[in-house]
Amino acid sequence: MKGKYLSFSFSIVFISWIVGMVINFYLKKTAFYNKKLTSLNFIRSERINRILGIGVFKWIVKNTFFRFFNQKIKLSGRFDKADLVALRNEMTSSEIDHLIAFVFVMVFVVIKVIKDDFLLGGIIMGVNIIMNLYPSLLQQEHKRRIDRLMGRM
Question: Could you tell me which residues come within 8 angstroms of residue 10 by beta carbon, excluding any fewer than 6 positions away?
Answer without folding.
Answer: 127, 131
